[in-house]
Amino acid sequence: MSTISKKKLDELIPPAIEIINSLGFKKDGLVSKTYHGYFSSFGADMINASPLAAAIFSEDSSKRESESNTGTKEDRTLVPLSILKLMKKKLDSNIMDEKLSSFIISRSTNGVLPSIYVENILASAIALKIALRTFKKS
């Protein structure tokens, strides 16, 4: 896997901030620390399992209901949604998929996602995680 350029990350951070503002990450002007963990878990899942597995796990809204029993009420599905929105906004305006998992499936051949897409997903996730740091935490 190739490395993500600093220039690419610098270009992705400002629109990532806009996406965080627009998608409902903030409550009362604050962003929950839980989202930092969600983005970290997403990256780890991509590397340890696969991009598709990470997307499916994060898109699973039933997970949100079980997490509310443990006190975690933040919407995990915002992670793949924000990644897809950032990729669409800055990397590929032709993306028509509504879910990250659909994006991955439609671009995979024999279960393998080309490295440029893996890099774009990871770059978007990193930019969003960095952008989260610009907001006050709850």
Main β-sheet, in a few words? 2 strands, antiparallel
**Poorly predicted ranges (pLDDT <50, ≥5 residues)?**
none
Element string (H = helix, E = strand): HEEHHHHHH
Global geometry: globular
Give the class from helix and strand content and strand pairing: mainly alpha
Roughly what fraction of the amino acids lie in strands?
under 5%
Total helical segments:
7
Keywords:
138 residues; mainly alpha; 7 helices; 2 strands; 65% helix; globular
Provide a concise account of the structure shown:
It contains seven helices and two strands; from the N terminus they run H-E-E-H-H-H-H-H-H. The model has no long low-confidence stretch (mean pLDDT 88). By secondary structure, it is mainly α.
What is the fold's blueprint, element by element?
Elements: H1 6-23, E1 26-27, E2 30-31, H2 34-48, H3 51-59, H4 61-68, H5 78-91, H6 100-107, H7 115-132
Antiparallel strand pairs: 1-2
Helix pairs in contact: 1-5, 1-7, 2-3, 2-7, 3-6, 5-7
Describe this structure in words.
Helix 2 (34-48) packs antiparallel against helix 7 (115-132). The protein is mostly helical. Strands 1-2 form a two-stranded antiparallel ribbon. The protein has helices spanning 6-23, 34-48, 51-59, 61-68, 78-91, 100-107, 115-132, and strands at 26-27, 30-31.
